[in-house]
Amino acid sequence: MYLNNYITSNITIVKHVVYHNERPVFENRDADLSAFLLSAYQYLQVSYPRFYKMDNLSKLGWLTVEVLLKDSGIKRYKPEEIGLVLSNANASLDTDRKYMQSVTDIPSPALFVYTLPNIMIGEICIRNNFKGEDAFFIFEKFDAAFIEQYVNELLNNDVLQTCICGWVDVLKEDYKAVLFLVEKAEKAKAIPFSSKNLQTIFDNLIIDNI
Question: Which end of the chain, N or C, is surrounded by fewer C-beta atoms within 10 Å?
Answer without folding.
Answer: C
